[in-house]
Structure formats: structure tokens, C-alpha cells
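thought: fold this chain, then report.
action: predict
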Amino acid sequence: MGEVRSHHDLIAWQRGMDLVKAIYAFTKLMPDSERFGLISQLRRASVSVPSNIAEGYGRGTTKDYIRFLRAARGSLYEIDTQLILSVKLGFAPADAAQPATDLVNECSRILVALIRSLEEHSTSKRERV
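observation:
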């Protein structure tokens, strides 16, 4: 693992950016009538994942960082729900949603591990004081 010099070096942020690309590709398959509905919701939620990771990283405190990582994770749950709805409502085929769903799951695992690591590091620091 290399040194983290900016949020660009974070795997969580990189996969979040990949998710945005997957969501934009997926929503291009959806009907234009959903432009202000699920398309807009999916795109905004996907953009919020790497944005929250970046903002949290830039805040400078572990507490704030964890709070923003949790917000990013919340957006992943929102995206998951909206992908399922898109398929159930017949706006796109299930196989078209799979790449984005896979990235949602990967991002979620990465964020859970990162949050846990930061919490453990924060706890162990307090115990040493």
C-alpha cells in the first residue's frame, strides 16, 4: 500500500469515482421521462459518494472524516434502492444494473473497513493518553 497524500490516493474515493461512471452509463439506458426522477436521484447520490469521501478527508479531524464516510455509505444504500426500483419499474434490464450494483457492494465493504480502522485507531490513541 502506498502513502496517502490526498483523497485521490484513497481506494474508497477511486471506486466511488468508478461508481459514478457506472451510474451515468446505466442511467443513459433509462427513458427520458425519468430524467427528473430516478435518473437525477441516482446521479446525485452517486456523485455524493466520492464527494463525501473527499470532503471528509479534507476536514482534518477523524471524527469529521468518519461522519462524512458514513454519509457516503448512506448514499450507497440510496443508490442500491434506486437501482432495484429502476429494474422493478422496467426502466432498465437487471443485467444492466449489475456493474453498478457490484460497485455499490465493493464501495460499501471498503467504507465499512475504513470506518472501522479509523475508529479503532482513534480509540487506541485515546487509551494511550
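thought: worth noting. The chain has one domain: 15-128.
final: C-alpha cells above.
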